[in-house]
Amino acid sequence: MAELLSTSTSFSSIGVCFLRSASKRNITRSALPLLSSRRLPSLRTITAFLRPSPLDPVRLSSVQRAGGRSLSSSAGSAAAARSAASDPEQLRSAREDIRELLRTKFCHPILVRLGWHDAGTYDKNIEDWPQRGGANGSLRFDIELKHGANAGLVNALKLLQPIKDKYSGVTYADLFQLASATAVEEVGGPKIPMKYGRVDVTGPEQCPVEGKLPSAGPPSPADHLREVFYRMGFNDKEIVALSGAHTLGRSRPERSGWGKPETKYTKNGPGAPGGQSWTVQWLKFDNSYFKDIKEQKDEDLLVLPTDAILFDDPSFKIYAEKYAQDQDSFFKDYAEAHSKLSNVGAKFDPPEGISIDDDTTKGSTPEPFQAAKYSGKA
Ligand code: HEM
């Protein structure tokens, strides 16, 4: 994910990338100004440190003082408010608001990416919180949003900020993970076993250093994936299962430097048009990612080097083949791996976490996604 802007990815690696369809010309054209702007002098960085969030500094500081809870949260949750990072009733209401947001904005993929990038900085070799990184809400701060790997995620934060404002009894760390799991469930994915109560970091000085997330085009993709995901405590099976999240969404050259500006599957949205998707039905969570990256037959579909390696590396391949053939097995392993990802590095208050699934609320059945409907094809 660190793409062009990471220390481990260079233009030469983009030049040799074996995207089937992303033309080098498009990548280079769009990426150059991006790269230079990201390397502007440290004044921007300093400014970012001085501002807690571009979105809502006043409310943010009051939430932080309250330990991530609203002082005016519902009376029924007074007991929880004494000890818990988030309020269960507000979490459930926030989930309803997220569902409505998803229905109107079709922003499922970017919310999944937001949750993953907040958590994916985790280092299992560091014991102390928040130095160990992980799902702690640090991605709300400018300094981290401006990491190259996080290009575009400010848009996800902007979408969620009104919900954060409404439910100050929900921490950012919980909101990001709630939004991600809800997004997967709402487009046909498996139910993700989740718990809540993640404590937020309180300032930008607690953000992780840049370079913790994976690059899409490293010199040795298998080694790189293992280095990054083993650091987070994941194994080969979990790496492959989690990569299956690319069944959703698109890559945009103006953000990551990867992918075509648009394809027949993305030119009409839904949501903001453009980008290149990994799958035809990129708002449907299924196992088509594994089928498509195995076949590599459609020039309009994306295969990053770190996707392709899942069928080349002998250990990854066992799982990639299995998931291409058996969606149930993918869903089972994905749900477990996603759940684990949502918890890495998190500090829970109360320590055992809070369940909000004691109600009967389930993800609604998604409207079947038809790429043709959005691509103008009959
Ligand atoms: C295995 C290493 C990974 C690499 C190298 C990688 C790389 C990328 C890249 C380059 C993009 C395009 C970003 C853009 O241009 O907007 C992207 C998007 C995305 N990634 Fe990953 N990713 C990885 C793992 C994951 C994981 C573990 C998840 C979730 C569990 C995930 C979920 C997504 C989603 C949903 C999108 C689409 C976002 C959108 O449509 O706005 N990725 N990833």
From TrEMBL:
Looking up Pfam families in the UniProt record yields: peroxidase (PF00141)
**EC number(s) recorded for this UniProt protein:** 1.11.1.11
Reactions that this protein is recorded to catalyse: L-ascorbate + H2O2 = L-dehydroascorbate + 2 H2O
* Amino acid composition bias (Low complexity), ranges on this chain: 68-86
Example of a GO biological process term: cellular response to oxidative stress
User: What keywords are assigned to this protein?
Assistant: Calcium, Chloroplast, Heme, Hydrogen peroxide, Iron, Metal-binding, Oxidoreductase, Peroxidase, Plastid, Potassium, Transit peptide
Please classify the protein's predominant subcellular localization into one broad category: plastid
Q: Which domain of life is it from?
A: Eukaryota
The UniProt regions of compositional bias labelled Basic and acidic residues, in chain numbering, are 251-265
Q: Which cofactor does it need?
A: heme b
* An example molecular function term from Gene Ontology annotations: L-ascorbate peroxidase activity
- Quick check: keyword Iron in the entry? yes
Cellular component aspect of the GO annotation = chloroplast
Where's it found, cell-wise?
Plastid, Chloroplast
Please list the residue ranges annotated as the Plant heme peroxidase family profile domain. Answer: 170-378
The UniProt entry, under InterPro entries, shows: Ccp1-like, Haem_peroxidase, Haem_peroxidase_sf, Peroxidase_I, Peroxidases_heam-ligand_BS
Is Oxidoreductase among the key words of this record? Answer: yes
Region named Disordered: 68-91, 245-273, 345-378
Family (UniProt): Belongs to the peroxidase family. Ascorbate peroxidase subfamily.
Name this protein carries in UniProt: L-ascorbate peroxidase
Which species does this protein come from? Oncidium hybrid cultivar (Orchid)
